[in-house]
UniProtKB/TrEMBL annotation:
Residue span, VOC domain: 13-138
PROSITE patterns tied to this protein: VOC
InterPro entries the UniProt entry points to: Glyas_Bleomycin-R_OHBP_Dase, Glyas_Fos-R_dOase_dom, VOC_core
Highest taxon of the lineage: Bacteria
Ranges in coiled-coil conformation: none
Protein name: Glyoxalase
Alphabetical list of SUPFAM superfamilies matching this protein: Glyoxalase/Bleomycin resistance protein/Dihydroxybiphenyl dioxygenase
Length: 158
């Protein structure tokens, strides 16, 4: 009888939580994420009909999984569902550059980039597949009191 090998419970390079996005056109979404956010493709598995059953990309130090819509399995993306309550948050070195790059790649601006009261320069986008993204660069370290004070002044961005 052979001894089973020790396998890492969390594979190397993965984190405890990994978003798994359903896209109407997962292959096209991968190309968009490459152009918009500098994603690196980790692999993909197509089913017999050509639809992606699984795909893996990396953006920065994080992973993202994708799959094509499969209505017969009730696997639908945000456009088919009329939107999504989920926003994917992405920290980057230069929010203005990445935001402009994502818009040039086809994302729609939901909230323009601005300095926020909690210390981030922050904006929101919707990608061509209906997924919402917030993109930010942390620019100021603030105390909880400073953040509470800033929150009392909505609309100022400070």
């Amino acid at each position: 009888m052979s001894t089973p090998s020790k396998v890492a419970a969390i594979p190397p390079g993965m984190h405890s939580i990994t978003p798994h996005l359903v896209c109407a056109g997962a292959a096209e979404a991968i190309e968009f994420y490459k152009k918009a956010f500098g994603a690196r493709e980790g692999g993909r598995l197509a089913g017999p009909d050509g639809r992606l059953m699984h795909a893996h990309i990396n953006i920065g130090d994080s992973s993202l999984m994708l799959v094509d819509e499969m209505p017969e399995w009730k696997c639908l993306g945000p456009k088919a569902l009329g939107g999504s309550p989920v926003t994917i948050h992405l920290y980057v070195e230069d929010v203005d550059a990445v935001f402009a790059q994502a818009v040039a790649a086809g994302a729609q601006v939901k909230m323009p980039v601005a300095d926020m009261f909690w210390g981030d320069r922050y904006g929101q986008l919707v990608d061509p597949f209906g997924h919402s993204w917030s993109v930010a660069t942390h620019v100021r370290d603030l105390t909880p009191e400073e953040i509470r004070k800033g929150a009392d002044c909505p609309g100022t961005g400070q």
